[in-house]
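Dear colleagues,

For the upcoming journal club I promised to circulate an example of a predicted protein-ligand complex. I picked one with adenosine-5'-triphosphate because it came up in last month's discussion. The inputs are reproduced below in full, followed by the predicted structure.
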Amino acid sequence: MDSRKGIALYGGTFDPVHFGHLRSALEVHQILGVSETRLVPANIPPHRDSLSTTAEQRLAMLYLAVEDSEFLKVDDREIRRQGKSFTVDTLKSVRQEMTQDAPLSFIIGADACVLLHEWHAWESMTEYAHLVILERPGYLAHEPAGDVADWLKGKLVDDPQCLSQQSAGLVCRMRLTQLDVSATKIRDLVQRGDSIEYLLPRDVNRYIDKHQLYRKVQT
Ligand code: ATP
């Protein structure tokens, strides 16, 4: 892989990964023209209660989802690192592996961005990477406020091409194909015994079925 064109990282719980994640990752990849876009599953997300699936199961589903993709990869460093997953640590460690002036971008949904001020060392993230904020169906009213809004202001650019001109430090909002799919919706459907076909890759659906994931009510 030639990392000089840059890398994009897409963090999440991916419990399970679905077409909302995959389509937006692919579109960002194409818009930025990076060498590689990596889905980075969190180990124990600091903002989520305990999950019904293991990190290994979420990881296995991600590998199945990108198996045939030329552009999308999986980066399992947060799971290997164990403990809580802090994005800033991930950005720092990927940055250390890259050519110094190559762009690194971190993709985040608008819903997650509203809670950015709760993330560990959130203001340092742009020392290592750009931030790409994705609009998400149903979350249009979710605008960052207070400290996050002020912090974003000086970094916002309209043209995504600006992100290829420097290694880090900018923020760009993107409106992509809107797929109103969420992992919560998928878990609820499975629990009710309804089909989740066409919301996520077929092999991921089969994995969920085979391992009987999401069937029990979470406490
Ligand atoms: P859950 O419903 O369990 O909260 P999720 O579907 O939001 O899960 P996550 O793994 O929590 O998935 O999300 C990872 C990232 O992907 C977040 O930044 C989130 O905003 C974004 N994201 C999830 N679904 C979509 C979608 N349909 N379109 C665009 N972005 C999405």
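Two points we might discuss: The pocket of adenosine-5'-triphosphate is lined by residues 12-15, 20-21, 24, 108-109, 111-112, 134, 136, 179, 181-184 (CB under 6 Å). The longest strand covers residues 7-12.

See you all on Thursday,
B. R.
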